[in-house]
Design a protein that fits this description.
Elements: H1 2-14, H2 24-29, H3 41-45, H4 85-101, H5 109-121, H6 123-142, H7 152-173, E1 179-180, H8 181-197, H9 201-219, E2 232-233, H10 237-258, H11 285-315, H12 340-370, H13 376-401, H14 411-429, E3 438-440, H15 446-455, H16 459-471, E4 474-476, E5 479-480, H17 481-496, E6 514-522, E7 527-534, E8 546-551
Parallel strand pairs: 1-2, 3-4
Antiparallel strand pairs: 4-5, 6-7, 7-8
Helix pairs in contact: 4-6, 5-6, 6-7, 6-8, 8-9, 8-10, 9-10, 10-11, 11-12, 11-13, 12-13, 13-14, 14-16, 15-16, 15-17, 16-17
Protein name: Zn(2)-C6 fungal-type domain-containing protein
Domain Zn(2)-C6 fungal-type: 22-50
GO molecular function: DNA binding; DNA-binding transcription factor activity, RNA polymerase II-specific; zinc ion binding
Amino acid sequence: MKPAHTVSVVRRRARKPKVKTGCWTCKFRRVKCDEDFPGCRKCSSTGRKCEGYGARTNDALVPLGHDVFLDPITRLPFAFPCDDRQERHAFQFFCTKTASEIAGFLPTDFWNKLILQASHTDPAILHAVIALGSAHETYEREGPGHFRNTLAARQSFALQQSTKAIKHLRIQLSSGVPQSGESVLLSCILFICLETFQGNHEAALAHLESGLKILGSWLHEDGQPVISSDYVSRPTRQFLEEELVPLFTRLDVQATTFLTSRSLRELSPRSSTTQPIMPTRFKSLGDANNHLADLVHWMLYSNNGAHNMMYWMVNNPLAQLNIPPPETTTPGGSIPPIPDAVLKKIMKIETEHKRILEQWLTALNFFLKENNNLDTKDLRGALMLKILYTSTTIIKAASLYNHDLEYDKYIPDFERVITLAESLIKSHTNATDKHTPLYSFEMNILPPLHYCSTRCRDPILRRRALALLEDTPRREGMWDSAMLAAIARYIIEQEEAGLGEVFSAEQIPAQARICILDKLPVLEETKCLIKYCKGVRNPYAKLDIKETLITW
């Protein structure tokens, strides 16, 4: 009997284990799965296709069907924060897709770490994240440019979750117990993201203004916070400066570049008026991006100062004693004479801008030289920074003089932006479905391509930029590729009307050139009202503002 018992034990040990968890491929093969995410290494290392995971316990995230995600984050090491099936699905979509895409080509830890951690402890942030995940999935399935009514149920769910988030935030603030200031501003960022995603720019700007006001009050050491400390605790200055100031600075720049009638905000007493200090080397690509945003914010602020000075001098009776204003613009479209005092200020600003931009580029090149083994994702980020840098050099110089003929001096720079953008898009679409619309909260390639298609008058280059807008369905904050392509087509047609075949930028006279002053989109209806002026902008005369409705 004893030997038989021994054999029985040996046989039981020799059997393959019953596999209750793991991917379907490993279950079928009856081997222990390493449960790596999104596909186990045992499958990939042997050339097999991992068939994904079945439902597991509430402490794990599982892939949605067999979709291929871009740079998916790993399984979260905590209990799933919601029980409702639809909420779990939307939260999962955010974790596996939205968090990795939302920062664009320059990802940060803000979305896939800070926001996810906060969503586990704060119900307002959790439901805002669920709403964003649902809205993102709807956008991917619906296509670029707008949301049609065919997916009204999903839109309704996103709205329902957004309402829940606002309700939880109000309950927290009225509970009588001081709430975390970090949570208030993180919720604000999520609400801005949700509204811009769905094309509700007015609501997004209202959230942005509130967030900037709260953040600015906390950055002023001697100032009184907008929200009483009885309701919200002031976050640490380190958290504000490292996590929130860079993001709100970029949002401020995004809103002002999209809506040119809007003025920049001062986050702190020195944020806009003091020249930014540029390091000799950057710690990361994210660090380089933050410094570039600070630099752009300061440059836009100083440009506005020069323009305000010009308009004050030509409209102030005392200043006009020494400045005889011209009666009309010259027929050739030449720029009206700029007062010497203003011209000196402009030249000084231009010199300073150029110097600090060169410092930024030197620091970036030094970082890239020291880190010559960057992966593909980081190389795309570096390429994106070069695009932003080049487009910034064009805009900062040409916009100072407020005259569209200035842009003709930067044809080689326009070509560089377009060539780099073509390379970046080709690299990215090789790893993704070309026709899947992409979304990011940050400005990436769309503003540079918009400027190339509308401010570059070289007929070949501007059409290359237009083709990229048409073939790259994406939304970056307030910027939408389908809308921008429609605007560019309209401007090209208007500027080249009656000229026959155009071979160079010089063939488009100043009187025919269009400058967009404002954009009022209604993305759900695929239309956008643009306000613009045509010809030379004379500071001595009131602008002749025209309007037209663009549809696509």
